[in-house]
């Protein structure tokens, strides 16, 4: 899908809340507006999607189902700050990274694991000396982090991804905090995709018995956890999962996170 068409769909929701540009990125001579949808409320949920361009379900769920998401949030008194497509050139091309080959996602913070030794991910360890915001990284990450930092930490934060490496329809999540809060969402999601339990998903991570992984990887989810946000997760469906099932899983978690923010 052309990003201009996608952006037009998001802008058409101006009757639901404020649709604003928080920045622009230039790729291949084309300017891509970076959009944020804001719906006021008493307590806030931040939703991010589209860090990786070959993971279209998150941006499409928001483009196709935003009215019902907003209606549910308003009933619960929850405000929304939604960043529906963070990597527009990758989304348009269907590529993981942006058109410059940069890798938006894991560049919100860095960990000092020994004096002067900084890492982006805590692989196989949880101990570190300190963490700090990372000033480098792709322009998309810098832009969204700069905008997010303008606001107080929300009550909850959900980042929507897909796994392009699995060979079947499945779902799992990276989570921080009390997994009991997320367990009903994952159990409900199993109606639409297999929850991958106790299995390896990449070279570093294995899901637990509930389909959850705790991993400090410098992502927006990790950053919000370090700021004390009590409910923060990255949801994954596989790109082999039918789109309708992806939408159903995404909406389950979005509604669940609205409920958590309302607590």
- Tell me the quaternary state: single chain
Q: What general outline do the C-alpha atoms trace?
A: globular
Low-confidence stretches: none
SS class: alpha/beta
N- to C-terminal distance = 37 Å
Q: Can you count the beta strands? A: 12
Nearest-integer average pLDDT: 97
The helical percent reads 25-40%
Series of H and E elements? HEEEHEHEEEHEEHEEHEH
Percent of sequence in beta strands: 25-35%
Radius of gyration equals 17 Å
Helical segment count:
7
What can be said about the biggest beta sheet?
Answer: 9 strands, mixed
Core attributes:
alpha/beta; 30% helix
General description of the model:
- This protein is α/β, with parallel strands linked by helices and 263 residues long.
- The relative contact order is 0.17.
- α2 (57-75) runs parallel beside α7 and α5 runs antiparallel to α7 (243-262).
- The strands form two sheets. Strands 1, 2, 3, 4, 8, 9, 10, 11 and 12 form a nine-stranded mixed sheet that branches. Strands 6-5-7 form a three-stranded antiparallel sheet, with no helix packed on it.
- α5 (183-189) links the parallel β9 and β10.
- 30% of the residues lie in helices and 28% in strands.
- It is built from seven helices and twelve strands.
- The longest helix has 20 residues, at 243-262.
- The protein is globular, with a radius of gyration of 17 Å.
């Amino acid at each position: 899908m052309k990003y201009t068409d996608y952006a037009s769909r998001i802008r058409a929701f101006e009757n639901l809340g404020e649709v604003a540009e928080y920045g622009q990125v230039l790729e291949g001579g084309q300017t891509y507006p970076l959009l944020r949808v804001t719906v006021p409320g008493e307590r806030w949920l931040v939703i991010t999607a589209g860090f990786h361009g070959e993971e279209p379900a998150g941006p499409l769920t928001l483009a196709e189902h935003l009215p019902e998401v907003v209606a549910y949030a308003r009933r619960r008194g929850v405000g929304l700050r939604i960043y529906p497509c963070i990597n527009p050139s990758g989304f348009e091309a269907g590529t993981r990274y942006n058109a410059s080959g940069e890798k938006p996602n894991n560049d919100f913070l860095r960990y000092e694991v020994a004096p002067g030794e900084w890492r982006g991910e805590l692989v196989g360890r949880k101990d570190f000396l300190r963490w700090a915001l990372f000033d480098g990284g792709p322009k998309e990450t810098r832009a969204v982090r700069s905008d997010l930092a303008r606001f107080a930490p929300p009550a909850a934060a959900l980042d929507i991804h897909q796994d392009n490496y699995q060979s079947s329809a499945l779902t799992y999540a990276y989570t921080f905090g009390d997994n009991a809060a997320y367990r009903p969402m994952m159990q409900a999601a199993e109606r639409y995709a297999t929850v991958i339990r106790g299995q390896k998903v990449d070279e570093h991570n294995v899901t637990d018995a509930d389909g959850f992984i705790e991993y400090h990887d410098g992502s927006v989810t990790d950053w919000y956890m370090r700021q004390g946000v009590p409910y923060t997760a990255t949801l994954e469906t596989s790109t082999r999962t039918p789109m309708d099932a992806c939408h159903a899983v995404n909406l389950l978690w979005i509604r669940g996170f609205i409920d958590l923010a309302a607590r």
